[in-house]
Backbone:
C-alpha cells in the first residue's frame, strides 16, 4: 500500500501534470513520488523505472544520471543535496534536456518539489545553426566591405587620370575643340566625375565603419548647409536641364546639433538622387523648416528641423519604398533606365538620420516623382544637446 504525502493530493496532482506539455514529476517531502506524467517517462527514457505514486525518487534520479556521460554524471552526483534550480543536461545519445526544479511550499511548510524536463535538442541545434549562419554572414559582410573599399580605392587613380586629361584637352593652349568634340569631352568628364563620386562614397563609407571613430556633434545651421549643397549641385543640374529650387525660412531659425560630415553626405545623396532621376525639364525642390517632431503615442514631440527634397523624376515603385534603404538595393525602374549608382545612397541617409535620432520617410508614385522627408531633433540624439 502506497502512502500519500500530506498536503499533496495524488489524483489531483496527476491530472494537473497530465495537462503539462513537458515532462513533470512531483516528489513529496518524504522523497517519494506523488505523481508523474507520461511525458516525463518518455522524455527521460525511463521505461522500466517505477514512477508510480509512492515510489522512491532516488532510483529515478539515478536512472537519469546514468543517461549522462561519465564526467557529467560525476558532476551531477557531486551536487546531490544542493538546490540547483535550472540546468541543461547533455545525454550520451546526443540529446539535450532542460531540467528545472521548483519547490512546493505552503507558507512555512515544505510540501515537495516539482521537476520539469523538456527535450530542447532541436532548439539548441537550431540555435547553433543560426549562430553559424550569423558568423558566416558576418564574414561575408566583412569580405564585401573590404572588397568594396579596395575596389573603390583602385578606381580612384584611373578616374583621376581621366579627369586630368579632360582638363588638358579642354585647355585652349592645346588647340580649339569644335562643338561636337566639346560635347564628347563633357560627357566623358561627367561620367568620370560620377564614377569618382561613387568610388569616394564607397571608400568613405567602409573606411568610416572600419575606423569606429565616434561622431562629432556640434551646433550647425541647416539652412547654410543646404544653401552650399544646392549651390554645388546646380551646375550639374543645369547641364542636365533640371531646375533646383531652395525654400528656407527667414528670421534666424534655431541651430541644429549634428555631425556636419554625416549630414552633408546624407543630404548630398538625396540631392544627387533627385537630380539624377529627374529628366530634363524637371524640377527639384528643397524645403527646410523648424517644426515639432512626429512624437510617439502621447509623448510630447520635441522641436526639430524638417527637410524635404522633392523631385518630378521617375519615382519609386510602392513595393520598393522600404527596400531601397537597404545597401546595394536599387529600384527596378532605375536599373532598367540605365541610371548609374551603387544602391548605397539611401542607406547612407538612413544611417545618418538614425545616428541623429531622427526619422526619414519616402513618398513616391512611379512615374510621378519622389519626396524624401527627413526630420532631425534640434538637440541631436540624447546626451549630445546643450545642457
Residues:
Amino acid at each position: 500500500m502506497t502512502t500519500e504525502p500530506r498536503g499533496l493530493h495524488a489524483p489531483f496532482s496527476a491530472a494537473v501534470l497530465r495537462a503539462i506539455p513537458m515532462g513533470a514529476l512531483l516528489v513529496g517531502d518524504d522523497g517519494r513520488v506523488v505523481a508523474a506524467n507520461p511525458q516525463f517517462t518518455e522524455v527521460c527514457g525511463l521505461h522500466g523505472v517505477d514512477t508510480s505514486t509512492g515510489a522512491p525518487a532516488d532510483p529515478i534520479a539515478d536512472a537519469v544520471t546514468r543517461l549522462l556521460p561519465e564526467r557529467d554524471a560525476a558532476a551531477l552526483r557531486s551536487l546531490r543535496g544542493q538546490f540547483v534550480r535550472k540546468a541543461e543536461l547533455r545525454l550520451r545519445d546526443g540529446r539535450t534536456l532542460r531540467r528545472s526544479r521548483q519547490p512546493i511550499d505552503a507558507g512555512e511548510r515544505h510540501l515537495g518539489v516539482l521537476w520539469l524536463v523538456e527535450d530542447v535538442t532541436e532548439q539548441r541545434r537550431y540555435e547553433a545553426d543560426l549562430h553559424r549562419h550569423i558568423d558566416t554572414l558576418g564574414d561575408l559582410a566583412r569580405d564585401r566591405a573590404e572588397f568594396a573599399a579596395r575596389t573603390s580605392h583602385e578606381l580612384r587613380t584611373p578616374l583621376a587620370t581621366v579627369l586630368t586629361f579632360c582638363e588638358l584637352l579642354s585647355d585652349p593652349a592645346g588647340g580649339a575643340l569644335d562643338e561636337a568634340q566639346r560635347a564628347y569631352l563633357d560627357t566623358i568628364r561627367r561620367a568620370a566625375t560620377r564614377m569618382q563620386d561613387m568610388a569616394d562614397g564607397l571608400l568613405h563609407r567602409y573606411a568610416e565603419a572600419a575606423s569606429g571613430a565616434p561622431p562629432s556633434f556640434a551646433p550647425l545651421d541647416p539652412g547654410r548647409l543646404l544653401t552650399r549643397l544646392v549651390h554645388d549641385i546646380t551646375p550639374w543640374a543645369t547641364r542636365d536641364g533640371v531646375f533646383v529650387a531652395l525654400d528656407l525660412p527667414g528670421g534666424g531659425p534655431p541651430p541644429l546639433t549634428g555631425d556636419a560630415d554625416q549630414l552633408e553626405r546624407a543630404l548630398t545623396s538625396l540631392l544627387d538622387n533627385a537630380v539624377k532621376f529627374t529628366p530634363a525639364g524637371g524640377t527639384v525642390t528643397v524645403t527646410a523648416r523648424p517644426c515639432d517632431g512626429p512624437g510617439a503615442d502621447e509623448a510630447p514631440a520635441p522641436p526639430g528641423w524638417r527637410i524635404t527634397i522633392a523631385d518630378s523624376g521617375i519615382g519609386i515603385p510602392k513595393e520598393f519604398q522600404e527596400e531601397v534603404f537597404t545597401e546595394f538595393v536599387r529600384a527596378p525602374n532605375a536599373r532598367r533606365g540605365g541610371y548609374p549608382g551603387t544602391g548605397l545612397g539611401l542607406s547612407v541617409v538612413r544611417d545618418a538620420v538614425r545616428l541623429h535620432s531622427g526619422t526619414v520617410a519616402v513618398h513616391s508614385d512611379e512615374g510621378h516623382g519622389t519626396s524624401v522627408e527627413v526630420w532631425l531633433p534640434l538637440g541631436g540624439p540624447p546626451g549630445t544637446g546643450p545642457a
Remarks:
- The first strand starts at residue 23 and ends at 28.
- The chain has three domains: 10-119, 121-213, 216-387.
